[in-house]
């Protein structure tokens, strides 16, 4: 997840974190 975050950027990171929270 961290590696993907670095590749995508801060915005996708927020969406990923929220998706994890929803799951």
TrEMBL record:
User: At the top level of its lineage, which domain of life is listed?
Assistant: Eukaryota
Q: What is this protein called?
A: Leucine-rich repeat-containing N-terminal plant-type domain-containing protein
Which species does the entry assign this protein to?
Nymphaea colorata
